[in-house]
Amino acid sequence: MDKMMRAVEISQPGGPEVLVPVERPVPVPGADDILIRVAFAGVNRPDALQRAGAYKAPPGASDLPGLEAAGEVVAVGAAVSRFSVGDRVCALLPGGGYAEYVTTPAAHALPIPEGLDLRAAACLPETCFTVWSNVVMRGGLTGGERFLVHGGSSGIGTTAIQIAAALGARVFATAGSAEKCAVCEKLGAERAINYREADFVEVLRAEGGADVILDMVGGSYIARNVKALADDGRLVQIAFLESPKAELNFAQVMLRRLTITGSTLRPQSDAAKARIAQALEAEVWPMVKAGRLEPVIDSAFPLERAADAHALMESSRHIGKIVLDVAP
To answer: In this protein, which residues make up the domain named Enoyl reductase (ER) (predicted)?
Structure first.
């Protein structure tokens, strides 16, 4: 077993260039943890927020970025019974994914879905945990309802479109180019709206309004989302690419019985994340096995080029997920 590992750390708050390759000691799993030899790690927007100094790691978590990975279990804690050395898993991480080895609670790991390789599996945890917990567990989306996701060509968006379509919802998405809109429709969106050319509020109101909206833009979109909701609709907020502040007429919320909710994943308790993992294995993993949900991968970068991966993510030129190839 190696004592040292390659990793990428945040040298100081800043742009992509502050991500630097280093050597770190291999972490030691706690009683309820597993140690994973990472093959691929997902790159996500919260990683960029952490790099910029705006999203601190929770107490006890690694200061290294990286919230999801796939690889092989190489050690298990004394209280772990589900996984054994040699098992191939993907996992939600409290941090530390930009490294050759990472620890995470065993309850936050899942077996690799049948037929999926490690690169694709590394794209599942962060997006699936986020989408299922917010769209279904929090937003209550069911078959036959109208669902709108903003940023439909992003990692979250491509996952949300496929899960909602698999549930039997009518899916709508926004994206910023004809190419991105075409991808959204290929994945199962009934209509992808180019937000540079059309108003999603008008489109959804013409359809009767959205029953559930998943938004990561915020700012000016918040009031527009409320207008786009059907009566008894639910707006679920998961990020703020524009702004966390908005002026809103709450009389509409009362008169039309709207629900405005949201969440962030990382600060939730280990028990809450374990419940989401159980729901994914029961409800979403069969979608993957049946080919109803397949990660959309834009590109892969070697671990040492994490800065380039972040630059691409922040350019928004990508479609789907960006991953780091960690294996030497």
So the answer is: 14-324
